[in-house]
Amino acid sequence: MMKAWFKKYQLRFHRPAGTSRGVMTTRDGWFLFVKNDSSDYTGIGEIAPLPKLSCDDRPDLESKIDEVCQDINNYKFWLGEGLQDFPSVRFGLETALLDLKNGADRVLFSSEFTTGRAGIPINGLIWMGDAKYMQEQLAQKIGQGFRCIKLKIGAIGFDKELQLIAALRKQHDAAAIEIRVDANGAFGADDAMEKLQALAKFDVHSIEQPVRQGQWPLMAELCQHSPVPVALDEELIGVNAFAKKENLLDTLQPQYIILKPSLHGGMAGCDEWIRLANQRNIGWWITSALESNVGLSAIAQYTFRKNVTIPQGLGTGQLFTNNIPSPLEIASGMLFYKPENKWEFNK
Ligand SMILES: [Mg+2]
Question: CATH homologous superfamily of domain 2-101?
Answer without folding.
Answer: Enolase-like, N-terminal domain (3.30.390.10)
